[in-house]
Amino acid sequence: MILSELIDRDAYGVGVALTARAEPSTEERPRVQFVDCQLERGPAAFTRVTVRFSGPFFADGSYICRQEGTACEGGDLRLAALATFDALVTASDGAMRFELIGVKPVRAFDTMVMMVAAMARDGAESRRVVGASIVEGDAMAAAVRAALHAANRVAAPLLGPLS
């Protein structure tokens, strides 16, 4: 991002406005992309969440992760976030690790927002990360997007240099 200063002085000799323009990039940064997710309910309160991702980090260009657990709405959201973190660990060849703290839908600004909190570890460094995504009909997809947003700052440097 290049910042250029445009100075516009008023009658009192004060006032500064900044404008920003983005430099065109010749190459997109490689990233893990969310494709879709499915929820399967089985007998005896069993749930399986399947999340599909794409990206150049996976052997055939795509990665499918399945997480299984107890059937409940909060549990389903946790499984979706865990599947997302598993995909990021795979994409980074194990350089990153995530410990899910929680997944929670909250109401903010008259909109449902999915929040994901986790501990992110890359090497010896550990930090708490939080991500959010607007719930647009599918709460599990919002949980996946929120988990990706939470991991973005940690994952971006490990998955490829800026273009």
Low-confidence stretches: 1-26
Mean pLDDT: 77
Structural class comes to: alpha+beta
Helix and strand string, N-terminal first? EEEEEHEEEH
Question: Largest sheet, described in full?
Answer: 3 strands, antiparallel
Question: What is the terminal-to-terminal distance?
Answer: 12 Å
Shape: globular
Strands of the widest sheet, in order across it, are 3-4-5
Give the helix tally. 2
Q: Beta-sheet strand percentage?
A: over 45%
| Helix percentage | 10-25%
Global Rg: 20 Å
Q: Care to count the β-strands?
A: 8
Which features does this protein show?
single chain, 163 residues, alpha+beta, 8 strands, 46% strand, globular, disordered N terminus
Describe the structure.
This protein is of the alpha+beta class and 163 residues long. Helices cover 25% and strands 46% of the residues. The protein has 2 helices and 8 strands. The protein has helices at 73-91, 139-159, and strands spanning 2-7, 16-21, 33-42, 46-54, 62-70, 96-108, 111-122, 125-134. The strands form 3 sheets. It has a 3-stranded antiparallel beta sheet, with helices on one face. Strands 6-7-8 form a 3-stranded antiparallel beta sheet, with helices on one face. β6 and β7 (111-122) form a beta hairpin. α1 (73-91) packs parallel to α2 (139-159). The protein is globular, with a radius of gyration of 20 Å. The two termini are 12 Å apart. Mean pLDDT is 77; it is low at 1-26.
